[in-house]
């Protein structure tokens, strides 16, 4: 099974999972949904077996995180003080990067550990232990 057509989600899908977007944000969202879909393909090739709904959900989550960048470009945190009162805010994704979370990778079928063995000394006779 292969991947569906890129992007995996539409602006309408993103708005249904988050909030209404302005016309300017909609243009940005279209590009980011394409980028998020390609990110999924690049980082999780095994996601080709995931359902279209899972691909749609993850693409929307990735874009939502990317679009929630702080209002001050390049700021990782903001601190304010007035007298004895202090306030500080730390941003979780200050650069607006697109990335897959650990739970999203698991939903897509990547990030799981796999175990296997390789016989480094194959038997010549097909038996075991010098038979």
Characterize the biggest β-sheet: 2 strands, antiparallel
How much helicity do the residues have?
Answer: 25-40%
The main sheet orders its strands as 1-2
Using DSSP, what is the number of strands? 2
- N- and C-termini, Cα separation: 44 Å
Q: Write the H/E string, N to C.
A: HHHEEH
> Approximately what portion of the residues adopt beta-strand conformation?
5-15%
Question: Mean pLDDT, nearest integer?
Answer: 88
Radius of gyration (CA) equals 23 Å
State the secondary-structure class.
Answer: mainly alpha
| Total helical segments | 4
List the uncertain runs. none
Q: What is the molecular shape?
A: flat
Q: What report would you give on this structure?
A:
It is built from four helices and two strands. With 131 residues, the chain is mainly α. Strands 1-2 form a two-stranded antiparallel ribbon. Strand 1 and strand 2 form a beta hairpin. Helix 2 crosses helix 3. The radius of gyration is 23 Å and the shape is flat.
